[in-house]
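Two records follow; treat each independently.
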Amino acid sequence: MDRKKISVIVPVYNSIDCLEKCVESICGQTYSNLEILLIDDGSTDGTEKLCDKLSEADARIRTYHKKNGGASSARNMGIKLALGEYLGFVDSDDYIEPYVYDKLMKALSERNCVAAQISRDEVDEAGRRLPDVCIPPQQTQFCRAQDFVKELLMHRGDCSFCTKLFKKELFAGHQFPEGELNEDFRLLVEMLQEIDGIVILPEQGYHVVCRSGSTTRKKTKDSFSRVFLDIVDNADRMQKLVDEKYPDLHLYAVRFNLFQRLDYMLHVPIPQMRGENAFYQSVKKYLRAHLTDTITNPYLTKKNKIYLMLFTMAPRLVRQVHGWKMKLAGAADG
């Protein structure tokens, strides 16, 4: 299998402080036949020069510079330029263990499938372990496509492309949606409809580095990442897809739809909770129209149901109280 080339695509933007560690972890793979595509997405902090320097140091690295267009556009460019039969993705602020692509390629060969996933963990900028977002399986398992969809609907599945290895041919007719922040989820759901499933390995070989300045973690008073809008849009797409292709998962999709809107409500800044905000009004209207689903859905927790019902009745007040609660919790932690 090591005669088959893997193309590892790394979208890069102003990553001067972490790119070298990321690339070194890919160069150190025990799987030898790979190329590394650094897609510089218009960096302005010197990262663009670092990409060129890294390419000069290792013949397996190819650097391409482009106008800034976001991670999805950089990944899409990498897919077009990739020479490998298999595609992997690594974010420039993350890093991987040396065995990752060796184990993923062996899993694809042994299970005779086209997609495999290594497990992941989350660490802070100092390298300290954080609570797992996705719980790894006890042993290697093959997850059927419908079961994987169910895990995504229950917020237990890993939608990240960075933890996966795919046959390149699967991307024919597909690309990462540009201009969105929940892009991995949307593309993975599209591709799951065309494959039998994904092999999942228990080893936590991919390390997600949680940085305080990342898109979804900015903590200013009125900051609000558009990811919270995209997750609602994706929930609507999922409801339609499930009802058409996976009707057995209907209640899971209803739960997902309600949960995504709850996530939106918990993050939307209070000044944006006004009548002229059409998106906010549509979420509020949805929660009121689906109050019965909130009460009866078996896959929502008791806490989920309480919050959803409160947001249905008095959204601004609940948001204020929740904000005070978070401030008190932060003060206690400090």
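The next record belongs to a different protein.
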Amino acid sequence: MVINLREFMRDEKGSAVIELIAAMIFMVIFGVLALNIIQLGNEAGQRVIEGTNSQADARIAANYVNSQIRMNDTIGRVEISHLEQSGRDAILIRNRTAAADFDRWIYFEDGKLLEALTEPYVQPVPELATVIAQIYNFRVSYDAQRNVIKAFIEYAHNDEIHLITMSIALRSDRTEGIIVL
């Protein structure tokens, strides 16, 4: 059996080019699939991070509201007041001491839980407020029968709205007056 070397080389060159083109096509397809998988993983990671951040912000807001009410729980100091500019209810903490007289407002506006310090009996201005946390919504109410402030903090996680509900029982009905420092 005699093999013609020239014919063998011609056939090999043709099949080598086809194999090279096929290999390149498979590499391109594999590369595109790998990039898609990486992109999907990145997007999933971003959603987890955003969900974790929004959940953390909601917890920060809940802890802040709870601690401010607890620290200021004396007769006539903590109340729920209506904001004229937004029509929403807010937490109003009246600070009346020998050193300073001011009101501390904790309220919701434009996706943020805000805190504003104002002169006594002055409504807050959002431009002068400090952001406590980014949240979806905040509502607050007072149950006079049970002497409880109820706070509802909503946050978005995994394209769903979740709710943190707090009932903060006031002890101020057993406290005698405002503590003056």
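Discussion point: The mean pLDDT is 86. How would you locate this feature using only the token line?
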